[in-house]
């Protein structure tokens, strides 16, 4: 049972580190079935649980999960959103996320998409510039609160786009997301310029689609990295055995 002192920390700025759940025993239950496994990953909206009975669960299943950590017991309602041999990916609900602090508030995923820049203005909205032809840029990474992007060599943009500039853009993610964002970082690269930006406004009806896009890419990236790590370990083990 969690003590009052620990409970008081839930949801506070000084909450538990999210890593406290890693390698903890986790119990997943649905209807009349209960399975026990190990929580192996937790970042942002997703949690991975490795368990032998993974195949009993289907995508979209509603479950109750109990996590037994050294800092206390955590119980949450969740949904299965992905599965691979030996493991399930379930949603980390907002009410559970608020109990923890994370190194990055919103997970950032690497992507290979594009966007269009229509216009920009300075933070005080005194200097405005609209492009006759929208300028295409390459999105390199994306999170629910911002993105990193590059624009090929363009001397004019170097002078116009500065830190705190506000941009009117449209993200092309398989669906269109019109939004405004503010430049928070700028650096010269070999191919042009890299910018980091935070979102100022996104249409409410596009927010869930954007979150779903990021979630899908986060899951896919995680599984790819996990397979690569498992292959690397297997090769190292084989190499050590042959020596």
Summarize the structure.
One of its GO terms (molecular function) is cyclic-di-GMP binding. The protein has helices spanning 4-9, 94-97, 155-160, 204-242, and strands at residues 16-17, 24-30, 33-43, 46-50, 62-69, 72-84, 87-91, 100-101, 109-121, 128-143, 146-152, 166-172, 176-188, 192-201.
Question: How would you explain this protein's 3D organization?
Answer:
The termini are far apart. The radius of gyration is 22 Å and the shape is elongated. A hairpin with a 2-residue loop joins strand 5 and strand 6 (72-84). Strands 2-3-4-7-6-5 form a 6-stranded antiparallel barrel. Strands 9-10-11-14-13-12 form a 6-stranded antiparallel beta barrel. The protein has a two-stranded parallel ribbon with strand order 1-8. It has 2 domains: 18-101, Thrombin, subunit H (Beta Barrel); 105-243, Thrombin, subunit H. The longest helix is centred in the last third of the chain and has 39 residues, at 204-242. By secondary structure, the chain is α+β, with helices and mostly antiparallel strands. It has 4 helices and 14 strands.
- Return the CATH architecture of the largest domain: Beta Barrel
Shape: elongated
Largest sheet: 6 strands, antiparallel, barrel
| CATH-assigned homologous superfamily of the largest domain | predicted glycosyltransferase like domains
How many DSSP helices? 4
H and E order: HEEEEEEEHEEEEHEEEH
* Coarse structural class: alpha+beta
CATH fold name of the largest domain: Thrombin, subunit H
Task: Tell me the number of strands.
Answer: 14
Give the SSE layout.
Blueprint: H1 4-9, E1 16-17, E2 24-30, E3 33-43, E4 46-50, E5 62-69, E6 72-84, E7 87-91, H2 94-97, E8 100-101, E9 109-121, E10 128-143, E11 146-152, H3 155-160, E12 166-172, E13 176-188, E14 192-201, H4 204-242
Parallel strand pairs: 1-8
Antiparallel strand pairs: 2-3, 2-5, 3-4, 4-7, 5-6, 6-7, 9-10, 9-12, 10-11, 11-14, 12-13, 13-14
